[in-house]
Amino acid sequence: MPTEPCGAAAARTFSIGGNLTVNRLGFGAMRLAEGSGSSSQSLIWSGPDDPENARAVLRRAVELGVDLVDTADSYGVGANEELIASALFPYRSGTVLSTKTGVVRPSPHEWVPLGRPEYLKQQAELSLRRLKVDHLDLLFLHRVDPQVPLAEQIGALGELREEGKVRHIGLSEVTVKEIEEAARIAPVSAVQSRYNVADRDNESVVEYCAARDIAFLAYFPLAVGAHASPAGPLAEVADETGATPGQVALAWLLHRSPCVLPIPGTRSLAHLEENQAAADVRLTQDQLARLAKAV
User: Fold this and answer.
1) FRET partner for 217 with CA separation of 20 to 30 A, picked from 27, 98, 125, 223?
2) Does any domain span residue 249?
3) Which DSSP symbol is given to 92?
4) pTM for this entry
5) Is residue 248 a contact partner of residue 220, using CB atoms and an 8 Å limit?
6) Which residue in 75, 195, 208, 219 is the catalytic one?
7) Angle CA 226–35–135, to nearest 5
8) Sign of CA dihedral 175, 180, 185, 186
């Protein structure tokens, strides 16, 4: 598996669509849309049970250099976008807001793709209002709706782009074939999928994006399971570097390819600071090779 750039350091920034430069280690705001109490509160449905802490986390993220904040209209059924605006508006110059549309929440337990063009456009307008912006820096199709031709779904986002309401278009959880199909309708600047050192099901998509300078936003970037165990490869490399296993997992992603933008999320200020410090973790070629072979 290619690992670029190889060696001791990884590029710190990436230019989305060739003209929207961000620090590669971003922040995923989804976790701020769930409560920490009963299971009914932990479904990305009702918003945080401590809004002041959530706003403090967002503000601290920006202070630490985060300029890419990712959300979705379905997180907290719009409440996550409103939370971001309440914490960060007016936005610091250079702040890039990434949101997603195309999933409807009939109930706390349901995430249903809905890609009708009129719905996508309606939700984009609501996102503009909730985030208090006149355009969306990066708008993802949250999921491809199998009931609607992909050309119609991307066509709707393309029209929003032509109207100046969307700067860049992204796709979430798609195949290489779907990226290619979408790109025939409108430019695709970013892809967002689950990816980490222990979960590489989207390896071919990462390779495709890397070859075409398409940003790949990696969500759930921290490895779990055997990789994260005290005897696992992350802990081994963490001992060698003086970092935490989580920091090593993020550093591996930053070394994986210049196009990979990890978006870890957390409700904890301490965890946020730990995550952001991963940008300073340097991995040797031997450590990278051992982690790459550990799956």
Assistant:
1) 125
2) no
3) P
4) 0.94
5) no
6) 75
7) 95
8) positive
Domain of 205, in residue numbers = 19-221+260-265
For residue 179 the two structure tokens come to 């990226």
Q: Count how many domains the chain has.
A: 1
* Cα 260 from Cα 251, distance rounded (Å): 11
> Does the annotation mark 75 as catalytic?
yes
Question: Among candidates 30, 66, 25, 73, which has minimal Cα distance to 48?
Answer: 30
Could you give the residue ranges of the DSSP H alpha helices within 97-147? 117-131
Write out the two tokens for 103.
């999933």
Q: Count CB-CB contacts under 10 A for residue 263.
A: 22
Question: In a 10 Å sphere around its CB, with 0-12 CB exposed, 13-18 middle and 19+ buried, how is residue 92 labelled?
Answer: exposed
CATH at residue 113: 3.20.20.100
Model confidence over 156-206: pLDDT tens digits? 999 999 999 999 999 999 999 999 999 999 999 999 999 999 999 999 999
Does some domain include residue 201? Answer: yes
The set of residues, in sequence order, having a beta carbon less than 8 Å from that of 19 and lying 6+ positions away, is none
- Does some domain include residue 67? yes
Does residue 247 lie within any of the structural domains?
A: no
